[in-house]
Amino acid sequence: MKAMMKVAVLALAALWAGAALAQSPGAPGHARHMAQLAILLDLTDAQKPQVQTILENEHAQMKALFEQTRAAGGKPDFQAMHAAHQQIAQDTLTKLSTVLSPTQLTKFQTLQQMHHGFGHRGGPGGPTPSAAPAQN
After folding, report:
1. In whole angstroms, what is the distance from residue 96 CA to residue 99 CA?
2. Residue 59, Cβ neighbours under 10 Å: how many?
3. Which residues contact 105 (CB under 8 A, 6 or more apart)?
4. pLDDT band at 13, cuts 50/70/90?
5. Is the pLDDT of residue 75 over 50?
6. pLDDT score at 136
7. What is the pLDDT of residue 118?
8. Angstrom distance (rounded) from CA 124 to CA 17
9. Domain boundaries in the chain?
10. Alpha carbons within 13 A on the beta-carbon side of 48
11. In the chain, what is the straight-line distance between the N-terminal and C-terminal CA atoms, in Å?
12. What DSSP string describes 75-120?
C-alpha cells in the first residue's frame, strides 16, 4: 500500500513539474498552477485561499530578496542568498503545516523536491529545500 502511494505521488509530481515548466509567466499561469496544486493536494475550498496567500507571500519575499541583492550591486553573496532562500522556504513550510494535513504537507514537499529537481537548482539530484517533518 505504501509503495503504491509513493508511485502515485511521484507520478503526480512528475506531471505537476512538467506542467509547471511549460507554463507561461503571468497571472494566467499562476492561476493554472494554483488549480493544479489544489487538485494534486486535494485542497478543500477553505484551504485554497490560505495556501494561495502563503505561497504568494513566499513569492513576494523571494522577489524582494532578489531585487535587494540586485540593487546592492557588486558581487552577490551567494551563500547568504542561499541561506535566506532556505529560511523563507522553511517559514513557508511552517505556515503550510498549520493549513495542510500531514499527508497534504508530505505531498507538497514531494512536489517541491520534484519541481526543484528539474533544472531549478542544478538539475536532478541537485540540492532541494530542507524538508520539515510532517506534523501530526
Report:
1. 5
2. 13
3. 93, 96, 97, 132, 134, 135
4. very low
5. yes
6. 41
7. 61
8. 12
9. 2-120
10. 14
11. 20
12. S--HHHHHHHHHHHHHHHHHHHHTTS-HHHHHHHHHHHHHHIIIII
